[in-house]
């Protein structure tokens, strides 16, 4: 089983927009997948994917002041802006990379 951790704590903001301050418009996301399988040293297999996502200011929802934002709120915005298919693709890519760590198709050896 793989656990996915979405970190959306780093954001770009417009200092002023539509009468509000510190309005988030771009999210720098980091998704880390961690397997419950352990390597030979007892560490879980893990890999990370990073990127950015523009998030629109939605006039149909109440504005949340920057100081009241949480990672969970911004993860929701980010995933909504990406769409379910892209979120699934990111997590599937991480799962595939972890599978390659567990069962590599190529390794590097040094000749003595």
Name the descriptors.
3-stranded antiparallel sheet, alpha+beta, 112 residues, 3 strands, 41% strand
Specify the structural class.
alpha+beta
Which regions contain 5 or more consecutive residues with pLDDT less than 50? Answer: none
The proportion of strand residues reads: 35-45%
Q: Helical proportion?
A: 25-40%
How are strands sequenced across the largest beta sheet?
1-2-3
Number of helices: 2
Rough outline: elongated
The end-to-end distance, rounded to whole angstroms, is: 38 Å
From the alpha carbons, calculate the radius of gyration and give it in angstroms: 18 Å
- Largest β-sheet summary: 3 strands, antiparallel
- Say how many strands there are: 3
- Mean pLDDT over the residues: 95
Q: What pattern of helices and strands is seen along the backbone? A: EEEHH
Please explain how this structure is put together.
With 112 residues, the protein is of the alpha+beta class. Helices cover 28% and strands 41% of the residues. It is built from 2 helices and 3 strands; from the N terminus they run βββαα. It starts with a strand and ends in a 10-residue tail after the last helix.
Task: Give the topology.
Layout: E1 2-17, E2 20-38, E3 44-54, H1 71-82, H2 84-102
Antiparallel strand pairs: 1-2, 2-3
Outline of this structure?
The protein is an alpha+beta fold.
């Amino acid at each position: 089983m793989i656990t996915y951790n979405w970190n959306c704590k780093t954001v770009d903001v417009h200092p002023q927009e539509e009468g509000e301050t510190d309005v988030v418009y771009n999210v720098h996301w980091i998704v880390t997948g961690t397997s419950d399988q352990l390597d030979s040293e007892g560490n879980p297999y893990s890999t990370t994917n990073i990127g950015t996502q523009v998030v629109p200011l939605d006039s149909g929802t109440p504005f949340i002041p920057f100081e009241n934002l949480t990672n969970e709120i911004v993860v929701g915005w980010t995933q909504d802006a990406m769409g379910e298919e892209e979120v699934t693709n990111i997590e599937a890519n991480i799962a595939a990379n972890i599978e390659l760590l567990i069962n590599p198709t190529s390794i590097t050896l040094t000749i003595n």
